[in-house]
Amino acid sequence: MKKLVMTLGTGFLAASLLMSPVQAAQNNTGPAVPNQQNLSISGFMTHEQMTKRLDQIATNSQGRVEVEVVGFSNQGREIYKATVGTGDRVILIESEIHGNEKTGTEALLNILQFLGSSNSPKAKQIRDEVTIVALPKMNPDSAELDRRANDMTWGEVVEAFPQLSEASSPAWNYYTRMLQGTNYAERPGFDVNRDFNPDLQYIPKPEDFPGNSASPGWFITPEAQTVRDVYVDLQNQFGKVDVFVDLHHQGPYMKVEGTDDDVTMSISGQFVPDPNTAAGAKYNEYADDYDYDFSRQLNVAVYDALQIGNSPFKNISLYQQGLDLPGTALGSFALNGSGTVLFEVRGQTQSFGQKMRGQLVKAVEDGLYGIIEGVADESVYEIDPEKYEEIPLTIR
């Protein structure tokens, strides 16, 4: 896939922006929650609004924030990359790989605004010590449709990869039915967060389909291909991507283990078994690069950042452990040597009112600053990784 790179300048607005989002309501499932409503997503940014905000951030930063188009969605929407900082350690953060999980996008833009415009000692230290690369809305078709999957048919995949006409069936993560209130029969799509492969040079092979959740993905979607290309470019430039963070949402009914407290956010640093153990022996070729202890240190930094003072965001717990998901971006990039952190914010974007949305965006910001500042001042490397095991679990 040929990559087109364009830099945003003052007043730039992409000519090919498409229409405002189809706000397809998602139905919540599970027990009733007091005062819960199926609210619209109008408080969150459309693709067009985000483009304008990125333009403003780049302009106001006076060159500190660089914004580029690094790829296009299947429906032709721009996928943007924003970079701030000049340090040798790289932090790659993506949001909206699932388009109905939106708080991370708001948090990333707030962070870019601060780091690009502030002359504070904190902002200057971060810019000097780290390079932050953000993909604030990496699945824009999904985001505009307010749903989990992208907007793409199996026929389009076969057109791009003719060898897959010999596959026994489409990919297992291809949605073609009613799911979470969305009728994918009318507009099919793929869960992009199952389309990654630890072999970053992998070419799709028919014998690898349909696959399953415990198998690597294939890079058949242009959205996953774009993230892969950004990751590889950073590897080539810096030698490695030190940190990868993926911003998600989970159901609103989770509790912190041992309490009756609703979870504000689940976090995790484990998505494949350690290649240095018997359970992870099938990933042995990645054993020298995999660094689970660093992932654990990063997650503890997030947890600690959200326990400070009178923070209302103290209900942080560990997402399900013991996972083996090499088809996720987190699993694939962990095997390639990145310290990895999953954010799973409570609820979908339609679940809460404006006040709760703002609180959850702030929780994501505070957690991300725990990582960013810890890497910038190197304090994260002093954390005992075993503290990760003391974080309570998320339970239903």
Automatic annotation (TrEMBL):
Residues 43-375 form the Peptidase M14 domain. SUPFAM superfamilies: Zn-dependent exopeptidases. GO terms for molecular function: carboxypeptidase activity. Its cofactor is Zn(2+). Keywords: Carboxypeptidase, Hydrolase, Metalloprotease, Protease, Signal, Zinc. Pfam families: Peptidase_M14. Gene3D superfamilies: Zn peptidases. Residues 1-24 form the signal peptide. InterPro entries: Peptidase_M14. Belongs to the peptidase M14 family. This is M14 family zinc carboxypeptidase. It comes from Alkalihalophilus lindianensis.
